[in-house]
Amino acid sequence: MLSYPIFAQRPNVTPVTPTSASLFKSLDFSMSMTSGVPNISIPLYSIDVGGLEIPIDLSYQAGGIKINERSGRYGLGWSLSCDLQITRSINGIDDFGPGGYFNNNLITGFLGYTYPGYPLPPHDNTTAGHLNAYKIGTGQVDGQPDRFAYKLANKSGAFYFLKNGPSYRIVPVPFSNIKIVFDNGQFVITDTDGTTYYYGQQGAVDESYLTTMGKEISKGNVVTWKCLRITAPNGADDVYFTYETEDPQQVISYSDRFDLFTNDDPCQVRPYYTAISPDVTVHTTLPALLNNIPFYKLSTPKYRSVTAGTALNSKDSFHILYWNGMNVLSKKALVDQDNSSVTMSGLVKGLSIKDITFRGGKVAFSGTSEKLSSLSIYDETQTLVRSVGLYHSHVDEDNVRTNYLDSVHIGLGSNVEKYAFLYNSKMSFGGHLKGNDSWGYRNNNTVNAIWGHNQNTIPFTLTQRDRFYYDTDPFSGCTQFYPDVEFGFGNDDYMVDYPDEQAMLQGVLKRIIYPTGGFVDFAFEANKYLETFNGNLHASDLPLLGGGLRVKSISYFNPENTVPETQRIFKYGELEDGTGIAKLKPKFVEEPYKYYFAPEKEKSSVYYLRAPFTDPILYPLGCLNRNCLEVITIEDKTTFHPSSSLNYWSADGPPVYYTAVTEYKHDYGRQSGKTVHKFFSPDDFYVGGPQAHFMTERVIEGTNIPRLKAEGLYGAEKMVEQYSYNLSTKKYLLKNRKSFTYTPYVQNEQVRVVYAYQKVAYQVVEGNYSGGEQELYNHALGFAGSSAPSEEFTSGDYGVPVLKLLLQTEKEEVLDEISNLTIEKEYEYASLPYISPTTITTKNSKGLL
After folding, report:
1. Which tops the pLDDT comparison, 335 or 229?
2. Which of 58, 87, 98, 231 is the most exposed place for a label (fewest CB within 10 A)?
3. Per-residue confidence at 462, pLDDT binned at 50, 70, 90?
4. What is the Cα–Cα distance from 135 to 104, expressed in whole angstroms?
């Protein structure tokens, strides 16, 4: 018997290692103008064997650093291009575990909203259908496919398992013609050029042999498959990768919340205890109170406030509200410190790359699991031909170390090239911090979790109830209540989760100094998007700060100059107004004299049940199902989370997407030209029919379950215009224009996603019930004296389209003072699903083919 109702919690997140997370982050979207994030990389070496090229570059992801990011062994924000792997995000439960998506043979490919589909209500209202909803809603069976992100030597992407009963196929998203095979725990990917990659070793996972198996573990699940071997297209050359274990890490996260309980009809609850009842006021802690008074007999509204801090100082309290009829709300607060707001991940066991061996040489990686110190490149005679040294500094806070890459030295002896890196205000990042903007980045409210219990991250929320019952005396006809009761809770700072540009800039790369002594400066600024404000007379779209950073300017300096030799300045938006599109964004609330991001809410109900004396003739085995249970009362539960509890990143797109970016070029301080980049919006191509609105839905309506989205719709270039600048007329002259059109190729069969959200929880609080939990959800039976709720789970299914945007036409206009030339290309695809063009027709304005 539960004394405090807890259910329908936020979906769990299974973390990966810092190195995998840094790499995974760089795979989330193409680094292009659409995201405003520059591609920053330092080439260290390139393996070239048998027609296979594997670059070894240090790459920096400059879109901003979230507060819970940990520095991998290359330094905060840096990743190594040759660290090839498959990393997955676990949706629901482990696909390969008992009841997982891979083992759920009721799953079939999604062909639109036609049935029979997955047997669930409301389309399958049989007992079996409701049992399926129960199993998915309680986490016994999985209906959500995990997303796998892969990295090859020259490309990256993602894939899902597309199930059809006991059979399956693996589909890349966006669609491509690479071949992916899963065999006994190992993934094998064959690229379109014939290169074959082997990720992980076959066989059951043994955590004592992770280096041999090439697998990383988190919460007991495999989350990363490392590349162990690559076979070149010639079939004769192999490249081998070996690994060493990293020190296991514990990932900690903090989550504030409010659990609000209300009962609009407590008339059957007797005795009924309010905040001023003597049996309540005598207690100071919730456990002591619940040892004497059942939870459901405490008057409502009542709520639990969870303000996360470290495991030793989380501030949990329980409040029983009391309305005294004089517009003053008093409350009884009790301590309830159970640390449920602090989530410990379990150990994350990672791997670090140790050696890459190939015909003609070897690359050896040296250092610790905390930081890589050097790369040594040997030829076929084991002679050292190149050395790369990595030098770090670190910031320590609360036993959390954040490493920063300060310099890289490439070469041997006196012939060494040195790169140096400077950052904005080196700060510590990791699981010791709490407080962030809605996207997870630092803001004014970021603090050490030691002090986190002093600050709740949910904005102040007002709630109104029609009635507050201060007594349920049956002789009064249960009419002892006050109407229209208003109360609130949360942080008085409405901007508690609003972005802060200066805070986001902390720890971000700002300068690279090259071996020549020249340097490049990067200036970043916060993303912006348009939000609708409803004024007194009319609505207006005004800019708001969004999560993450975009590049503002890149300036190239020679060693002897104080003025940049070249400067690139970026202006965003169709009208250079600085705004882009936020397809996924927090809920915006506008009230008089203030606006803020609304907390996320989950709603459900708790049925409190009584097992009365049962007739031994009718029930010889006692009360075994809900047919012999009585409903005492029902409480509604609403859980409030900060807006940052949801992910506002598209799977293959940035948090803010720019359809227009103008790049201005200055040479030695003078304007010299500009390039205007324009991109299609994802809305221009979405082919989901009735599902189109799901592109902006963060969670499935009425649930706390994130909605999976189609991938491949971001980044399609629409037009590029190049201008020169005339110094005498001070005008820009159009010199070249390229325009593009695309057609979406969409496979008929989609990846089916099945969901069920638990709307109702049952608790037997009186009498002797001998049945199991599943029997409480037997749809064929009602309760003694009353019917069961019509909908115990919000359930359904949908499809994730598998698609690819194919270039259809390309037009180039070359403009000069004498004549203009137009070149047009048309692409045909006659061998779909092979997405390489079969015919390219070219013609110019002179009629030549």
Report:
1. 229
2. 98
3. confident
4. 11
pLDDT number for residue 115? 57
- What is the structure's pLDDT at 572? 97
- What confidence category does residue 583 fall into, taking pLDDT thresholds of 50, 70 and 90? confident
Contact 180, 206 (CB under 8 A): no
Give 167-183 pLDDT, tens digit per residue. Answer: 999 999 999 999 999 99
- At 147 the pLDDT is 96
Alpha carbon 316 to its chain centroid, in Å, reads 27
Instruction: Single out the residue of 444, 404, 440 nearest to residue 422, CA to CA.
Output: 404
Tell me the pLDDT band of 23, cut-offs 50, 70 and 90.
very low
Please, is 328 exposed, middle or buried when counting C-beta atoms within 10 Å of its C-beta (0-12, 13-18, 19+)? exposed
| pLDDT over threshold 90, residue 374 | yes
Residue of 259, 305, 302, 303 whose CA lies nearest to 457: 305
User: Are 418 and 515 spatial neighbours (Cβ–Cβ below 8 Å)?
Assistant: yes
H or E element: which one contains 281?
helix 278-281
Is the distance from CB of 73 to CB of 117 less than 8 angstroms? Answer: no
Categorise residue 713: left if φ over 0, alpha if ψ from -120 to 50, beta otherwise: alpha
Q: By the 8 A CB rule, do 599 and 461 touch? A: yes
From start to end of 516-599, where are the E strands?
A: 519-534, 539-557, 566-572, 588-591, 594-597
Q: Count other Cβ atoms within 10 Å, centred on residue 414.
A: 5
Query: Can you give the C-alpha Rg of the chain in angstroms?
Result: 30
Report the length, in residues, of the chain.
849
This prediction has a pTM of 0.92
Cβ neighbourhood burial of 403 (10 Å; 0-12, 13-18, 19+): buried
